[in-house]
């Protein structure tokens, strides 16, 4: 439950931070623009209909109008472009308009609308277009028929004239449009309803309430755990990192990556936390495996690291090639032999400005003492001003002969041993790296087990190592495309790779399978859920989450 609260608290905080930024930006815009700059009235002349009085002599007398509408709340006569107009307000507050010369219902044609619009305008432009409209999103509450007169000026002025009354309803222009969107962002009123009583406001209130309550829950948990105590004990992860011991972590001790595994030995080992129950199997927990970030140092038990063979490795780039439009293969060599298992990864040290960053990449071939192949997914800049992926950009721009420092090997994403189970591999994108290593190692064995490989990509050109997998008759290779390009002459499977895998799985004995999963986080999450729903024992499923 705490893990879910942490996850939701983090995402709600992001939403709230975004809204606070919108408040600050829109508020600053209001302060520098001012009311007049946002009104849309820069070129508007107030042109209120004049009382007729002695200026006109209507042919339809006031007494006649009163006889027609004896229960009217009020009857007024005004001058519109020199013509008398009766405005009759009924008891139900409806207003009717009549020509004071003919007694007929008042009517506004295009020429009159243009004349009235120009009489309310003192800008430098000329009429560009006149269009009949029924209401407008730019004029709140006005749903009647009328005209929009577009002026050719520097502000793109638009004048709205009501057909029934000949009244100039509003002036709108580009500064007003910008201000309108600023108001929508500021008041979270994206529908333009000019109301605080809508679903988004209710949701924002609930989100804020949840953020406050979950924050208090997490604060209480941190206080209970002694996180604010300067004399508190370190977690085992902090301890090993300070001692320079070989231990991996991608989440900074948040209990979400599952890489900092250790084995606790003794009669008084702590019970597993929620994060450990989510990331470790029942067999692993029973064997004393825990996450070092979840427990503080103690003398009540012993701690065994899983990566005692980890060491610093100096790698030299030997070659590189573009596997797909988004994945590059880099081949490094080492002067010193390194012992590792298929499926393990290296921790690269990436220089960036004034610091050294760590990035994890799995070896993409079966073990070789001095030669290491990695698949790097290139992460270009998503937009101007946003930098590209630091690690991938650095590595993919290296030239042959360049040297990189790494630490490893890490990880326990390895082949199951001592059984005759069918080996099922499900992957997508750059997740092919450790899966390819596992497949190569299995097929290189004296008596390889049955191997099935489901690999998903968006387009045909993104299928990594396709020729290699199709050539090996010992491997049942099933590529799946989620999006088929018009240029692809594709006759294979389409859809999501985990769905195709589950169709195959439906006819198999779930207890005789070992399943290995690696791919983008959404694909990984969906696959693990499907495997659990299909009844594949948790102990027979191994996964590598490279997307954390």
UniProtKB/TrEMBL annotation:
Its cofactor is [2Fe-2S] cluster. Residues 310-416 form the FAD-binding FR-type domain. SUPFAM superfamilies: 2Fe-2S ferredoxin-like, Ferredoxin reductase-like, C-terminal NADP-linked domain, Riboflavin synthase domain-like. This is Na+-transporting NADH:ubiquinone oxidoreductase subunit NqrF. The chain crosses the membrane at residues 12-32. The lineage of its organism: Bacteria, Pseudomonadati, Pseudomonadota, Gammaproteobacteria, Alteromonadales. It holds the Pfam family Fer2. One of its GO terms (molecular function) is iron-sulfur cluster binding. Keywords: FAD, Flavoprotein, Iron, Membrane, Transmembrane, Transmembrane helix, Transport, Ubiquinone. InterPro entries: 2Fe-2S_ferredoxin-like_sf, 2Fe-2S_ferredoxin-type, Beta-grasp_dom_sf, Cbr1-like_FAD-bd_dom, FAD-bd_FR_type, Flavoprot_Pyr_Nucl_cyt_Rdtase, FNR_nucleotide-bd, OxRdtase_FAD/NAD-bd. Residues 214-309 form the 2Fe-2S ferredoxin-type domain. It comes from Pseudidiomarina maritima.
